[in-house]
Design brief:
338 residues; Trna Endonuclease, Chain: A, domain 1; six-stranded mixed sheet; 15% strand; nucleic acid binding; YhcG_C; PD-DEXK-like_domain; tRNA_endonuc-like_dom_sf
Length: 338
């Protein structure tokens, strides 16, 4: 009976114990991961320092990892394959200072990062994985979709270096725009003859992947969002809210090339949302016309004196050509040095 009378206090006790337990589990995982990273780095350090001792290096040569793998496996069982030992060795070489490691990333994250040869690119993915709290699978996907190269291709040398050092920091509308958006996760086979409605339906069916492609800060509001003007209904394909920029983000899908009429229509949507949907504290909405193709000159003139919150970007159903993007960035960096 006393327990029933004091039920509220008892529930508070349950909640307190539950929260403490969950936080303890979380801290334990972080602690284990931290010790694991330090251990693997130390193993790599021992291997590198042993190799650097002249005589030993000459004596063991390329057979060192083979010998270590065999002997350590006999002692400890799994975990000491040649590839794992090589990763630990590489881990120390890339991160010689332990303080530079982020214990928010797992060993599996670092294994994926170590596969990236370019230092700038590796640094970007490390920072972005932390900023957006990527899982290992999300990190793999963004690497495969060449996110760094897509973001860097339109920047100058200073901006590329800043991107690599800090990741993509969202401070203004332009920071959330990508060119192109890669929708390979929709698994649309050639010849890509789906209608805009069908593309939209597939995006909704793969919303988690689409949000990852959009980037950090997006919350889904709805599809075919109806607005009524002069007794006529209009429908915005996809509506999101960006909690960092504190504004609505409207996306209009185009099956083929973006036209000047699409820009006019999106501009109308932006005006409506700013005046009818925004509440106190909301910033002006952002509009993205997402099309398969766009004519840069036509877009330039169609955008004349149009809201700076409106953007036209391309999307594609296949992964971008990494080598072509890399060549464009290298050309840009070389041009900046001239």
């Amino acid at each position: 009976m006393e327990l029933a009378k004091d039920n509220m206090n008892y529930q508070g006790l349950v909640n307190q114990i539950s929260e403490t337990f969950l936080q303890g589990q979380k801290n334990a995982v972080i602690s284990v991961n931290s010790h694991l990273l330090e251990t693997y780095r130390a193993v790599g350090q021992y291997i590198v320092e042993f190799e650097q001792k002249g005589n030993e290096k000459a004596e063991y040569g390329k057979n060192l990892l083979n010998s270590l793998s065999k002997d350590l496996t006999n002692i400890h069982g799994k975990g000491f394959s040649i590839s794992n030992l090589n990763r630990m060795r590489q881990f120390y070489l890339v991160y010689p200072i332990c303080a530079t490691l982020s214990h928010k990333l797992s060993w599996s994250h670092y294994v994926e990062l170590l596969k990236i040869e370019d230092k700038l690119e590796r640094s970007f993915y490390e920072k972005q994985a932390l900023i957006e709290n990527w899982s290992v699978s999300e990190l793999k996907r963004q690497k495969k979709a060449s996110l760094f190269l897509r973001l860097a291709v339109s920047k100058d040398k200073k901006e590329v270096l800043q991107l690599a050092k800090q990741g993509q920091i969202v401070e203004k509308p332009k920071d959330i725009i990508r060119e192109p958006y890669v929708l390979e996760f929709l698994q649309i086979p050639e010849p890509y003859n789906l209608t805009e409605t069908e593309i939209e339906q597939r995006i909704i069916g793969s919303l988690q992947h689409f949000l990852l492609e959009l980037g950090k800060g997006f919350a889904f509001i709805g599809r075919q969002y109806r607005i009524t003007l002069a007794n006529r209904h209009h429908y915005v394909d996809l509506v999101f809210y960006h909690h960092i920029l504190k504004c609505f983000v409207l996306i209009d899908l185009k099956r083929q090339e973006a036209g000047y009429e699409d820009i006019g229509q999106m501009n109308m949507y932006l005006g409506y949302f700013e005046n009818e949907e925004n509440t106190e504290g909301d910033n002006p909405p952002i509009g993205i016309v997402l099309a398969r193709e766009k004519d840069e000159l036509l877009i330039k003139y169609a955008m004349h004196n149009v809201s700076s919150q409106l953007f036209v970007s391309k999307y594609q159903f296949y992964l971008p050509n990494r080598e072509e993007l890399k060549a464009l960035i290298e050309k840009q960096l070389s041009r900046d040095e001239e």
